[in-house]
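Q: Please design a sequence for this.
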């Protein structure tokens, strides 16, 4: 076991240097083995500290929506016009299409000035009304060659649907539907700038103050989808419980894991293994991954880049993982994850 831990540590140390991020935390859980790897400027005390989980938050949003489906308050076939009066031209887009990114709604992250505005005014996020107006003015993304187009704007609409149906703020709806039932003590929806420096340090080179540390500069509402804070332990716990079918019903999980093909590939173009991903309902699916089916999500936002999920390996065994880099990098750390998993299963 010591040899395995040593090898895993060497992997994240080498990968961190290759990627060029100051610090990295990796957590791996199997049925008989749990390992926390810390590299670079981070320390063992940071394992329990929080960070923005970025687009992993979409899995939590999808769980909350599916809970409302189970309660009969929402149907996956409901259209946006069922919830909003002024939503043209997207009035016929369904909840299911929002969840699996097949509605071809433009992604606000790709609006020409979005990233420039984030870098220039990190404390002053766009309003959701502004994003909705601009998306509706832009109209649908060309769907002639793709079946699925990843859209943060679509998840912003899900954010608003959750608030409308529950009559609660998004943060309270997620707390009631996901966080509290799972007894997640270190997970919450971020609504304010981290002026207390409570999160693990996070660096974006385009931010000008505090040597680029985003914590007291970046307002989480720039993620109009709603962004959660969690730590590697609780991220792994959620994905393990979800894929063990301990959170949602079997019927809900069947819907959630019905993947929609997407042109996004697992890892960088030259990664050792490239498996085509599908968009399920708030979760990425790779049934053809050589080491076993993988279910999870990647995420990146200013200061953090993350890859997490649950891998089914042979003989009913599984591996749950979460890897976070504390700086903005080009791709989520999928290559790091692949190398760690390969070492464990060999």
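A: Design:
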């Amino acid at each position: 076991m010591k040899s395995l831990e040593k090898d895993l540590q060497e992997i994240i140390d080498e990968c961190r240097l290759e990627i060029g991020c100051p610090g990295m935390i990796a957590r791996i859980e199997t049925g008989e083995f749990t390992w926390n790897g810390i590299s670079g400027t981070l320390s063992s005390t940071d394992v329990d500290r929080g960070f923005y989980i970025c687009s992993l938050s979409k899995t939590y949003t999808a769980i909350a929506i599916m809970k409302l489906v189970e309660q009969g308050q929402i149907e996956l076939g409901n259209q946006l016009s069922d919830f909003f009066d002024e939503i043209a031209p997207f009035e016929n887009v369904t909840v299911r299409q929002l969840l699996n990114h097949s509605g071809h709604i433009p992604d606000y992250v790709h609006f020409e000035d979005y990233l420039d505005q984030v870098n220039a005014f990190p404390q002053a996020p766009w309003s959701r009304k502004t994003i909705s107006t601009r998306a509706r003015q832009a109209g649908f993304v060309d769907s002639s060659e793709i079946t699925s187009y990843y859209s943060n704007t679509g998840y912003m609409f899900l954010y608003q649907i959750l608030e409308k149906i529950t009559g609660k703020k998004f943060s309270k709806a997620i707390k009631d539907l996901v966080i509290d039932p799972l007894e997640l003590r270190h997970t919450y929806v971020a609504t304010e700038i981290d002026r207390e420096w409570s999160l693990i340090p996070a660096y974006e080179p385009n931010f000008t103050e505090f040597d680029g540390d985003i914590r007291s500069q970046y307002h989480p509402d720039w993620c109009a989808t709603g962004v959660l804070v969690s730590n590697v332990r609780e991220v792994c716990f959620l994905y393990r419980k979800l894929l063990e079918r301990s959170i949602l019903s079997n019927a809900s999980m069947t819907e959630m894991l019905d993947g929609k093909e997407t042109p996004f590939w697992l890892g960088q173009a030259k990664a050792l293994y490239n498996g085509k991903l599908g968009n399920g309902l708030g979760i990425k699916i790779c049934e053809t991954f050589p080491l076993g089916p993988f279910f999870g999500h990647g995420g990146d936002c200013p200061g953090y880049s993350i890859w997490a999920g649950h891998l089914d390996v042979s003989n009913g065994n599984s591996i749950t993982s979460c890897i976070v880099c504390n700086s903005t990098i080009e791709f989520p750390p999928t290559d790091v994850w692949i190398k760690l998993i390969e070492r464990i299963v060999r």
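Q: Thanks. Anything notable?
A: The chain has a mean pLDDT of 92. The chain has one domain: 2-345.
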